[in-house]
Amino acid sequence: MNHKNKIAVIGLGYVGLPLARLFATKYPVVGFDINAARIQELQSGKDSTLEVEDHLLQSVLLDKNPSDETIGLFCSDKIEDIADANIFIVTVPTPVDKNNRPVLTPLYKSSETVGKVLKKGNVVIYESTVYPGVTEEECVPVLEKVSGLKFNEDFFAGYSPERINPGDKEHTVEKILKVTSGSTPETGKIVNDLYKSVITAGTYLAPTIKVAEAAKVIENSQRDINIAFVNELAKIFNLMDIDTHEVLKAAGTKWNFLPFKPGLVGGHCIGVDPYYLAQKAQEFGYHPEIILAGRRLNDSMGKYVAEQVVKAMIKKDINVNGAEVLMLGITFKENCPDVRNTKIVDVINALEDFGVTVTTFDPWANPEEVYHEYQLNCQNSIPLKKYDAIVLGVAHKEFLEMDFSFLKKENTILYDVKGVLQNSNYKL
Fold first, then answer.
1. Which run of H or E residues covers position 19?
2. What is the pLDDT of residues 75-118, one digit of tens each?
3. Is it the case that residue 155 has pLDDT exceeding 70?
4. Which helix (H) or strand (E) holds 249?
5. pLDDT at 272
């Protein structure tokens, strides 16, 4: 690979933008997204996801489509701006529907977009998390149909699974080892060399695209199962009136004990990826018991937390019906504005089913996005009143040393889902 390669990154969200910014330090890059408002925001040098610091984004931004000799990033929602690229990297979301079935629509649509401008000799690399086979069996046929070109003769494909950790300023994209793959051995080397040129942590060239796809989907499935185990422990130890966090701390003194903590498993990866693997396994006639059992348990935790809060209120003779509860946080993880697949919503909905009035406060979340996604009101400042219960749902830094006294009645309970507060009455 050399500086004459021009890269088009399709999808400028939590995965695409950091990658586009990184490649733009060495290559001419066009970032493409169908969201015109997002493009306008990025071209003004701002990133609302907070994944790329403004000064880093601004340092690579160009005010027009770069030539082959110009290094930098130009963001656009116009397909003609990616027409002269020879490397296409697709970084669109891969969600599940309400029945937890994989939704490949974003991949199909983005493949159609790339197919319209695909030329002989081009390489299309997918980063979206998928089950094994999606790249070659689902995406490539779309590219062939729209472009009229033949796979592995006229154009080639690669897969390099994203490993972005939203909100993590330590493990940024260039500091995380990258798995790469290609549809032919030669393409694999091209893809690997491309990423190696910007990823300081190094790369690992997988033998096939399916191996790379499978490696990604099991990374998060493994974490999901481990968290499900400690969530089950939390349920057991709560019945025994034993502090789960103290148990885990004691067990953690053994060198090979894995340090997982109980909690709500949301977000766009851990709470979604296992369903992709399960779907493919079932197509082959195998029912993945452990994977789906872990998913069921983790998906039940929102309701469980709500039930624990209600039980705690009853023990303090607080009238549950009509009670006022303050929910601290609605994003899927701490110090991050990402609200995709957040399980705090499950807690809120379950509490409201008990007749509780929930006020949600999150200084990181965008209230408009929260309402659009979940039809829930979220505030960026706390209404100054007394609450019957306060639930720490997300461990934002603003909450860790917060004085709750001005929000508490005489018998208000403080329930700590994350187990990080020193003065909580109850914790998961």
1. helix 16-23
2. 999 999 999 999 999 999 999 888 889 899 999 999 999 999 99
3. yes
4. helix 244-251
5. 86
State the average pLDDT over residues 112-134. 96
Per DSSP bridges, beta strands 387-392 and 426-427 are unpaired
The one catalytic residue among 75, 269, 336, 378? 269
- 32 SS3 class: strand
Residues 49/17, Cβ–Cβ less than 8 Å:
yes
Q: Is the pTM of this model over 0.90?
A: yes
DSSP 8-state assignment for residue 416 = E
The answer to whether residue 3 scores a pLDDT higher than 60 is no
Mean pLDDT to the nearest integer, 366-391: 94
Task: Indicate the angle between helix axes 105-117 and 140-147, nearest 10 degrees.
Answer: 40
Helix residue ranges, H only, 102-208: 105-117, 134, 140-147, 185-196
Tokens 């190696």 belong to residue: 196
Query: Which pLDDT band, with edges at 50, 70 and 90, does 342 fall under?
Result: very high
Query: Minimal CA–CA distance to 60: which of 52, 71, 48?
Result: 71
Task: State the first-to-last Cα distance of the chain, in angstroms, to the nearest integer.
Answer: 51
Q: Are 213 and 134 in contact (CB under 8 A)?
A: yes
Neighbours of 347 (CB within 10 A): 28
Report the pLDDT value the prediction gives residue 2, as an integer from 0 to 100. 46
DSSP label of 82: G
Can you read off the two tokens belonging to residue 50?
């907070």
1 pLDDT band, cuts 50/70/90, is very low
Other Cβ atoms less than 10 A from the Cβ of 339: the count is 24
**How many C-alpha atoms does 71 have within 13 Å on its Cβ side?**
10
Q: Is residue 106 exposed (0-12), middle (13-18) or buried (19+ Cβ within 10 Å)?
A: middle
Cβ–Cβ under 8 Å, residues 363 and 192: no
Q: Which two tokens stand for residue 265?
A: 């498993």
Rounded to the nearest 10 degrees, how much is the dihedral formed by the CA atoms of 192, 197, 200, 203?
A: 10
Q: 10 is written with which tokens?
A: 């399709």
Q: How many other CB atoms are there within 10 angstroms of residue 416's CB atom?
A: 22
Q: How is residue 297 written in tokens? A: 């348990």
Please give the DSSP secondary-structure letter assigned to residue 405: G
**Ramachandran angles phi, psi of 153, nearest 5°:** -120, -55
Q: Is 269 a catalytic residue?
A: yes
Helix runs in 240-272, H state only? 244-251
Residue 282 CB neighbours (<10 A): 12
